[in-house]
Amino acid sequence: MNKPIPCPTLHRSQRTRRSRKRRGSILVLSGAAFFALVALAGLSINIAYMELVRSEQRLATDAAAKAALVVLGQTQSQDQARQAAKSIAALHRVAGRVVVLDDSDIQIGASIGNANGSYSFSQTASASSVVTNSVRINSNLSKMAGGGIPTILIPQLMGVSTFTSEQSAVSTRIDMDVCLVVDRSGSMAWTLGSTPFSYPGDLAGKSPIQNYFQLPHATSSRWAALTSSVNIFANVLNEAPIKSRVALASYSSNFTFGIWTSVVASIDQPLTTDYTTLKQKLNTLATQPLIGNTNIAAGLREGVNALTDPTRTRITSCKSIILLTDGILSQGDDPVVLATTAREMNIRTHTIAFSAQADVALMQRVAQAGGGQCYVAPDAASLEAAFRTIAATLPNMLTE
C-alpha cells in the first residue's frame, strides 16, 4: 500500500497562522496589562493626593480654631473671634485654593473634661452665663470655588471629577497650674562651659574648694542664666490671654558644712499669678552658696506637692512640672518612677537638660514617663528658647 505524501507547504501555512494568533493574543494581553497598570497608578496617585489635601485642610482647621480662641480670650468678643478664624483660614491653601469659612462653621462654646481625660464640647448662646472656653471649627471643601477639589488623574477611575472632605477641630482654653522645679546643687554656680568645677568671674582659676562656698556669679554662672530664662518665661506668660498659676520648687541634697547648710528640696513659692515673685525667690536662693548633690526625685516630689496642695489646687486646671537639672543624678529615688506616678495623677512632666554635663538620656526618660517633652539646652541661649517655647504652648490645647 502506498503511503500519502505529506504536503510541506500546508504544514508551514498552519504554523504561520498559529504563530500569528499567539502574537495577537500576547499583544491583547500586554495592552490590557498596560492599561491596568496605568489605571492602578492613577488610582494610587489620586488617593495620595487626597491624603495630602486632607493634611493641608487639617492644618488650616487647627490654626483657625487656635486663632479664634486666642482672640476670644483677648477681646471677649465672639464676633472678633469668628473674624480671626476666617482670616487665618484664608491665609492657608488647600490644593492651592483658599479655605472658606462661614459663621455657621465657627461654633463658640464650652468644653468640659471627662473622667477618662477627654473633653466634651457644647455650643453656647452669645448671652449664655456658661463659661465659654472653646471654639470649634468645621471646614468643608465643598465650599471652595468649584464645589470641591478636582482629582488630578483619570477622574473616571474615581467615579467623580471632584472630591470633598469635612474636618473639625476644637481648641480649648485650659487653666494651667505649673511648678518650676530647678536644680540648686553646687554645679549651678559653675560656668556654662563643658569643664567641671570651672567658675566664672573673680573665682576663675581658684581652688574648687575655695569657690564651693561662694555666692554664684550674678551674670556669668549657670544660676544667672536660669534666672534670666525664668524672667523670659514669666514675660511670655504675662502676654497670654489666660493667667497661668506658677509655683517654684528647688532641690539639691541635705548637706551641712560649718555654717553652711542645704535641705534636699523645698517649695520656695506656692502657686501664684504674680510672676515677679519667681525672680525674687531665685535671687533669695542666690544669697546663699549653692551647695549639695543632685537628688532629682526629691525635687519632683515637691513639685507634685505644690500642684496638689489642697488649699491651692483647682479641679479645673491642667497641671505641669518643668524639671531642670544641669548635672547627673547622684542620690535619691528613680525620678522616672516619680514622673510615672505624677502622670497617673494627671500631672505632666517636661524636662530641661541644661549644660554639657546634664544627663540627657535620663531627662528624656523622665519626660517620656511623664507625658511631656525633653528640651536639651547646652547654653544660655537654648535655655531661654526652651523656657520661651514652654510658656508659649501652655495655655491653649486642641481637645478634639
List keywords for this structure.
single chain, 400 residues, alpha/beta, Rossmann fold, six-stranded mixed sheet, five-stranded antiparallel sheet, 10 helices, 17 strands
At a glance:
It contains 10 helices and 17 strands.
Give the N-terminus to C-terminus distance in angstroms.
Answer: 97 Å
The value of Rg in angstroms is 33 Å
Could you give the order of strands across the largest sheet?
A: 13-10-9-14-15-16
Structural class: alpha/beta
Write down the overall mean pLDDT: 84
Low-pLDDT ranges: none
Strand content: 15-25%
CATH topology of the largest domain: Rossmann fold
* Global morphology: globular
Named CATH architecture of the largest domain: 3-Layer(aba) Sandwich
Major sheet description: 6 strands, mixed
Please work out how many helical segments DSSP would assign: 10
- How many strands in all? 17
What is the H/E string? HHEEEEEEHEEEHHEEEEHHEHEHEHE
Level-1 CATH class name of the largest domain: Alpha Beta
Task: Let me know the CATH homologous superfamily of the largest domain.
Answer: von Willebrand factor, type A domain
Into how many domains do the coordinates divide?
2
Helix content: 40-55%
